[in-house]
UniProtKB/TrEMBL annotation:
This is DUF4442 domain-containing protein. CDD domains: PaaI_thioesterase (cd03443). It comes from the Bacteria. Gene3D superfamilies: Hotdog Thioesterase.
Length: 168
């Protein structure tokens, strides 16, 4: 099996030396810069490991819909980000992760803020480490402050080789 430590893991590992009170804000700053739309929605990157991710969004005016709940687009962004980040923690440096498909079914009205938790199996992580291209269906659950799952999601992520820049 190839080395599973990639650029994202190395970048986040640099934050481990910070005092614990600064690690979360520093992680949020770094990840929001890497994916600017997550900063626009003020997503909170609670946990991010090669095995799992946990990301929150508060029910604040910039992400609300017309009934003062978290907007459908923000719910989808939250789930997409949770799945994409756990994939990003595993994709090889010579590959590019791409969301291939998503399905979001809206089941209940959400109460308050939301949290998305995504994870990969050991077999999925091994495939990403060993294969130049492929795809995985990433498990994700989204719950609101009442503990209800207002949406059910399925995200399929692919990874493909990065294009090599022509040499001058």
């Amino acid at each position: 099996m190839r080395s599973t430590v990639n650029r994202l893991q190395r970048t986040l590992a640099k934050l481990d030396g910070l005092p614990s009170a600064l690690r979360g804000p520093a992680r949020n700053f770094a990840l929001r810069r890497a994916v600017p739309f997550t900063g626009t929605a003020s997503l909170d990157f609670v946990a991010l490991t090669p095995e799992r991710s946990e990301i929150r969004v508060a029910n604040r005016r910039p992400v609300q819909n017309h009934i003062k709940g978290v907007h459908a687009a923000a719910m989808s962004l939250l789930a997409e980000t949770a799945t994409g980040m756990v994939v990003g923690m595993n994709v090889r440096d010579d590959c590019l992760p791409l969301c291939k498909s998503l399905q979001v079914n809206f089941r209940k009205r959400a109460t308050g803020g939301l949290v998305a938790k995504a994870h990969l199996t050991a077999a999925q992580r091994q495939a990403m480490a060993n294969e130049t291209k492929g795809e995985v269906t990433v498990a994700v659950t989204v719950t609101d402050e009442a503990g209800i799952e207002p949406i059910e999601c399925e995200f399929v992520w692919a990874w493909v080789p990065k294009e090599k820049k022509p040499q001058a």
